[in-house]
Every structure is written in C-alpha cells, then in structure tokens.
Amino acid sequence: MDWNELKILAARKIHNNKLSEEYIDRLKTEITEIEKQGANNYWLDIYNSGKKWDTNPKGLVFPWLLDMTKVDPITTETTYIISEDGTPGEIMDVGVDGKTFSIPVDCLVMTKRGTIKVRNLQIGDELI
C-alpha cells in the first residue's frame, strides 16, 4: 500500500460509515500536517506493520479511521496538540473541559476555526 491509497482508505471509512463533516475536516487537517512534517512514511510503515494502540494520546482521527486504535477522538473529546518546532518557548495555560493545560505557545492546536498556534487562541475558541 502507498501513501495515496492509505489516505483513500481513511476517507472511505468516513463515507461508508456516513460520519459527520467534522471527521472530513479533521482528516484533511491531519493529512496536511502529516505531509507538512514529512511523516507520510512513518504512518505508512505503522499501518503496514499492523501496529495497534489501546489509546489515542494525540487525539488523531487518522489512526482511528484506519483501525489502528479503537478510540474515536471526536466522541472522546481529546485535545489535539502538535508541536511545531519542538522548542518549549513561552507557556500558556489553556482551559479544556474544566481542566487547565500548560501548552507552549508555538504548539498548534485543532479548533473549530482550524489548526492554529496556541498564541493565537481567542476567548471562546473550542479545542477539538
């Protein structure tokens, strides 16, 4: 299987299971980030090796759609965070579901507005 086939397989699960637009949006964003980070082969190797996880710590729909984990991040309300450059930088406290997380301001978070840096969060933004 190649990278394009893997993307199609994930998209088909959305279509076949008549999942909401939220899954489509999340998948598009995650694929864009994976490709931007050059992690295509990483995901391809993991899928082809048959690796499975009991949890979904990064809250990604991509591995869930590919049956690599049973944890649907949309129904479990997982906070989705991607480190952009790996440096801690400044820290910002972000409230999610009554909990406070200290997150580096240069990290990217998934919101209803799309993927944005923590430093650009606005009051009322919902992390998804």
Question: Would you identify the regions where 5 or more consecutive residues have pLDDT less than 50?
Answer: none
Q: Give the overall form.
A: globular
Largest sheet: 3 strands, antiparallel
Computed over alpha carbons, the radius of gyration is: 15 Å
Order of helices and strands: HHHHEEEEE
User: Helical element count?
Assistant: 4
* Content of β-strand: 15-25%
Report the structural category. Answer: alpha+beta
The helical percent reads 25-40%
The termini sit apart by: 30 Å
Strand order of the largest sheet: 1-4-5
Number of domains in the coordinates?
2
Describe it for me?
The protein has 128 residues and is α+β, with helices and mostly antiparallel strands. It has 2 domains: 3-65, no CATH class; 81-120, no CATH class. It is built from 4 helices and 5 strands, in the order H-H-H-H-E-E-E-E-E. It has helices spanning 3-16, 21-37, 40-49, 61-65, and strands at residues 81-82, 91-96, 99-104, 108-111, 114-117. The protein has a 3-stranded antiparallel sheet with strand order 1-4-5, covered by helices on one side. Strand 2 (91-96) and strand 3 form a beta hairpin.
